[in-house]
Structure formats: structure tokens, C-alpha cells
Design a protein that fits this description.
CATH class of the largest domain: Alpha Beta
Number of domains: 2
Number of helices: 12
CATH architecture of the largest domain: Alpha-Beta Complex
Distance between the termini: 39 Å
CATH topology of the largest domain: inorganic pyrophosphatase (n-terminal core)
Order of helices and strands: HEHEEHEHEEHHHHHEEHEEHEEH
Strand order of the largest sheet: 3-2-1-4-5-6
CATH superfamily of the largest domain: inorganic pyrophosphatase (n-terminal core)
Structural class: alpha/beta
Largest sheet: 6 strands, parallel
């Protein structure tokens, strides 16, 4: 397994016993919550207190990682979230590469005098904003990188049995979700870690059921509506688009996380190489991009959609009427492909 050279420095920081806030990104996914909770549980098992703070609500299907309701959500309890950040002497930022991905928490983090650590697998981390950066864009997920980091701690020395099952379960969740159940962005380390998890007694079948087989009826009907009524395919660009409108949200009782995985569905079609899902909110349009060919959707997102991410999985935002989104995407993709091909 690939070691993390700066891991001992992080363990030294943890051993100093500072009050700690663990922060993930806006619209946290399984990797954000899994890495944050996994880090918190690891610290608690060493007798160190840490508070997980998220900028916005997490998907309901991840509730098994927060059975005691200890995760603090800024949009639900602004005062408590800001207090956790302001009182921290150590701030651990997980699964985002720039402070602005923490939305309303970005300012308080930047102005804090706390020691700041970044653990992340996205491209181009903003290294100047942190005292310690542990970054590997080649990792499948932040949870994979976190696991490798913990295994590189001198006190752990590569022995996964020194971590308890809840900690390993949280980390496994992030790996499963960010790789789409071992379908995307996998590395040799991904499977070495999965083997460790199984050997240590992590119930992979249970996690699969909790993550991928616990959706609501309305979520399934929304998926059917998108595939039947919303999905369009541009055969020339080999691209698919789907749009979740505000009307759809109301009709199908949309909750955070209901669209998880939808953007991957059109990639099952043989002639589709790029898939885009646009979700209308009251403030902006959320953009999710995926590819299975040579199109680097992180570069596409950075150039046209105010975002970024990974080569085959990226996100962003648009600020325009929802009725203009599909045409804008296709024009943008065409321009991007023309530039990419010289």
C-alpha cells in the first residue's frame, strides 16, 4: 500500500490535544461524511474530542454514520457550527481542495488562528491556506487517502486491526460511494484496502444495502421520469443531458441525496461518453458531469461550469434560467471538444 510521508507530522499535531473541528464541503457526499466521521471516531478512540461540521445537510441515506446526531450542520444550527470553528485549535478540512467549497464556513476557517490541515484527493489544492496538506489526486477517494494516512501513523504501523469497526465502516462508505461501488477511479490500493476491511470484519453487504438499496419510492419514480421524459442524447457529441427542475423537486418530494448516482445512468448506453445532470435550486443550478471516454470533465467544468473535480467525475454551478441550460451545455461541450482536438 502506498505510504503517506507526511502522516507522522499529522499524528504529532493530533497528539498535541488541540480542540478540533473536522469540516467537509457543501452538499457533502459519502466520501465527505465517511472521511469526516472516520477521522472523528479515530480521534475519539484515542481520547481526543473532535466535532464534525458540515456546511449543508447530508443525504438521508448516510444517517447510519450519525446515529447520535453529533454532526453539526451550518444550515440547521449556524451558531453552534460557527462556535465549533471559532473554538478550534486544529481544523481538519476533508474532501475539498479550496476553502470556498466550504461555502459559509470558508470565511471563519480562513480567519481562524487554528492550525489547518487539508486531506483531499482533488486536483490543485490551495496549499497556501493550510499548514499541512496531504493530497493525492490519484487516490480513488479521500477515504482511501485517509486510510493510507492512518496506516502510515507510527502508532498504527500498517495494522488495520488497531482501528475499530465503526471507524473502518465510515471509511469504507466513502470508498464505495466515490468509486460507484468499485466501478470508477479505482487503484490497486482501493482493493488492498477493501481486503483489509473484509479481513477486519467490516460488513460490506450491509454497507451496500444501506447506501444503494434504501431509497424512497418517490426517488425511484423521479429516476423513471428523468430517463423517460428528461433525458436527451446528442448522437453527434455522444452526450446525454437530464434536468431536475423545481417542479420535479416538488412533484417527487425531492430530498438531499435523492439524485445520487443518476448522472451515471446514461453512461450505460453504448454511444454515450459524457453525461450531464442539472439540478435546479432557488439560487443556482447544480451541475454534475461524468464521462467514460477521453473527455476530461474536470477541465470542462472548470472552463464552463464554475467548478472542477476529477477527469471522469466533476461538478459545478450555473447561474442562468433552467430553460437555457441544455443548449448552453451542448454548445460548451462542442467548443471544449474542438479546443481539445486542436
Amino acid at each position: 500500500m502506498t505510504p503517506v510521508p507526511s502522516a507522522p507530522e499529522l499524528e504529532n499535531l493530533l497528539n498535541e490535544g488541540r480542540k478540533t473541528a473536522i469540516i467537509s464541503h457543501f452538499n457533502p457526499d459519502g466520501d465527505a461524511i465517511g472521511s469526516s466521521v472516520g477521522m472523528r471516531l479515530f480521534m475519539e478512540n484515542r481520547g481526543q474530542h473532535a466535532t464534525v461540521v458540515i456546511p449543508s445537510a447530508m443525504p438521508a441515506f448516510l444517517d447510519y454514520l450519525d446515529k447520535d446526531g453529533s454532526i453539526v450542520c451550518y444550515t440547521a444550527d449556524k451558531e453552534r457550527a460557527l462556535e465549533a470553528v471559532s473554538e478550534a485549535g486544529l481544523i481538519l478540512c476533508l474532501d475539498f481542495n479550496r476553502l470556498d467549497r466550504a461555502e459559509w464556513l470558508a470565511g471563519p476557517i480562513a480567519s481562524s488562528s487554528a492550525v489547518k490541515v487539508l486531506i483531499d484527493h482533488h486536483l490543485d489544492p490551495d496549499k497556501e491556506k493550510f499548514n499541512l496538506v496531504i493530497s493525492d489526486p490519484g487516490a480513488s477517494s479521500t477515504c482511501e487517502l485517509l486510510y493510507r494516512t492512518l496506516m502510515s501513523f507510527p502508532s498504527i504501523a500498517g495494522a488495520p486491526e488497531k482501528l475499530d469497526t465503526p471507524t473502518l465502516t465510515a471509511i469504507t462508505t466513502g470508498i464505495l460511494t466515490d468509486t460507484n461501488n468499485f466501478n470508477n477511479s479505482i487503484t490497486p490500493d482501493t482493493f488492498l484496502i477493501a481486503s483489509d476491511m473484509l479481513r477486519c470484519g467490516v460488513d460490506m453487504d450491509l454497507i451496500n444495502n444501506l447506501v444503494f438499496k434504501r431509497y424512497s419510492e418517490s426517488r425511484m419514480r423521479l429516476m423513471g421520469h428523468l430517463l423517460t421524459d428528461s433525458m436527451t442524447i446528442d448522437s453527434r457529441l455522444k452526450a446525454s443531458t437530464m434536468i431536475i427542475t423545481m417542479k420535479d423537486r416538488e412533484m417527487y418530494s425531492f430530498s438531499d441525496g435523492d439524485s445520487e448516482g443518476f448522472v451515471n445512468l446514461p453512461l450505460m448506453i453504448s454511444d454515450v461518453e459524457v453525461s450531464a445532470l442539472f439540478s435546479e435550486t432557488k439560487d443556482y443550478i447544480r451541475v454534475s458531469l461524468r464521462s467514460k471516454g477521453g473527455v476530461q470533465v474536470n477541465a470542462l467544468s472548470n472552463a464552463y461550469f464554475n467548478g472542477g473535480g476529477h477527469a471522469r467525475a466533476a461538478g459545478g454551478r450555473l447561474y442562468m434560467p433552467v430553460g437555457e441550460v441544455r443548449e448552453y451545455f451542448l454548445k460548451s461541450l462542442e467548443q471544449f471538444l474542438q479546443c481539445s482536438h486542436g
